[in-house]
Amino acid sequence: MLAGCQAVAPPAPTITSRAEWGAELPNHNAQNERGLFDPATNPLGWKVYADPLDEVYNTIVLHHTALPATDGPQEIQLKHTRDKAWADIGYHFVIGADGVIYEGRDIGVRGSHTGGYNTGTLGIALTGNFEHAMPTEAQLASVAALVRYLAYAYDITHLAGHRHFQPGDTVCPGENFTPLLPEIAENAGLEFGTDGYQPPH
Ligand SMILES: [Zn+2]
Q1: Ligand 1 centroid from CA 161, angstroms
Q2: Architecture of the domain defined by 57-192
Q3: How far is the CA of 114 from the centre of ligand 1 (A)?
């Protein structure tokens, strides 16, 4: 089945909002993501997408956090803002080991999760390190539901893992999770791989 051909909208999964998990506000003085985006003077800045989002996004990128599975959005936000000096948590969604889906960076803002391919990709991270552990059944159920929902809501065509965009640079989302990605894509009516990527114009 091709994206956009699903006859019935998949149910929206329950998502724990930033307010509910106590997110810090974005820090626009962060060293590595300073100020607001400007194509000429500040291409790395905070980019609020202007277009309708279904014209912005074409690919979902899946990640593991490579942190303890119990480290949730607060710990990840702290790591991304303190250690990586980004303005905010880099992923658009985080899925905990218990299957809870957390809102990450505002979906209307460019993420910071896949170097060179952040513009126009939607980033979802499962907590844990899947080089060593397995994603939980609850995580797999939640990521399947979230991907199906996002694919429909934003007219997504493709799904890939972080390592498929940056081979050699990262093993993310881990050797135990990566083989499951084609099935997640297929079940959401998406093509697997990076071929659909194109930055919005
Ligand atoms: Zn990653």
Answers
A1: 7
A2: 3-Layer(aba) Sandwich (3.40)
A3: 6
Q: How far apart are CA 60 and CA 196, in angstroms?
A: 10
Q: Which long-range contacts (CB under 8 A, 24 or more apart) does 162-166 make?
A: 162/61, 162/62, 162/63, 162/113, 162/114, 164/193, 164/194, 165/61, 165/114, 165/116, 165/117, 165/121, 165/194, 165/197, 166/114, 166/115, 166/116, 166/117
The share of the chain scoring above pLDDT 70, in percent, equals: 96
Strand extents, DSSP E, 8-100: 15-16, 59-64, 93-95
Residue 90 half-sphere exposure toward CB, CA atoms < 13 A: 27
Q: How far is the CA of 167 from the centre of ligand 1 (A)?
A: 11
Element housing 165 (H / E)? helix 162-165
The answer to whether residues 94 and 104 touch, using CB atoms and an 8 Å cutoff, is: yes
| Ligand 1 centroid, distance to 136 Cα (angstroms) | 18
**pTM confidence score:** 0.95
Q: Give the distance (Å) from ligand 1 centre to CA of residue 125.
A: 7
Q: Could you state, in order of their start, the residue ranges of all structural domains in the chain?
A: 57-192
Cα–Cα distance, 84 to 115 (Å, whole number): 13
Look up tokens 């993501």; give the residue: 33
pLDDT tens sequence across 13-67: 999 999 999 999 999 999 999 999 999 999 999 999 988 999 999 999 999 999 9
